[in-house]
């Protein structure tokens, strides 16, 4: 990989090594659906993708993208925030998620006042960690340039540092704009 590889591509490449057909995964911030589509391809027809977004527009665009690619059947889209992950997933998935993907910030091309927030993101990270299987990965693409973005980035970094002390392995891939964190749950 060269230094010009987009962080979104790096995140997907790293998760492709972890996710297998039949796995259960979460797209915690559906956005325009590109990660949801990637996840659906990885888990295949026998897997499950759970996608969260507070914006109906994001869910509609994602649904259309999945239908265009014939992958809507394995995806459940939820019009709620990622902080509702633990309340929204079936109990049978507790401790079984292979991966959870986050793209923090705002939906490209939409109202920039609607952004992810530190309090809901940290709640979602706590839930995600609990629902991950041993060896599972949380991918966090953290955009810092919008209003409140640096504050959220600082909260995420503090959460990662606290969990690294408890044995979580974290890979950091910086850039001048966003930063990518890949956090692996200990086996």
What's the topology here?
Layout: H1 7-16, E1 24-27, H2 34-43, E2 48-52, H3 56-68, E3 75-78, H4 85-88, E4 97-104, H5 118-131, E5 132-142, H6 149-164, E6 169-173, E7 179-184
Parallel strand pairs: 1-2, 1-4, 2-3, 4-5
Antiparallel strand pairs: 5-7, 6-7
Helix pairs in contact: 5-6
Short synopsis of the structure:
With 187 residues, the protein is α/β, with parallel strands linked by helices.
Keywords:
single chain; 187 residues; alpha/beta; Rossmann fold; 6 helices; 7 strands; globular
Describe this structure in words.
The protein has 187 residues and is an alpha/beta fold. It has one domain: Vaccinia Virus protein VP39 (Rossmann fold), CATH 3.40.50.150. 36% of the residues lie in helices and 23% in strands. It contains 6 helices and 7 strands. It has helices at 7-16, 34-43, 56-68, 85-88, 118-131, 149-164; strands at 24-27, 48-52, 75-78, 97-104, 132-142, 169-173, 179-184. Strands 3-2-1-4-5-7-6 form a 7-stranded mixed beta sheet, sandwiched between helices. Strand 6 (169-173) and strand 7 form a beta hairpin. Helix 5 packs parallel to helix 6. The two termini are 27 Å apart.
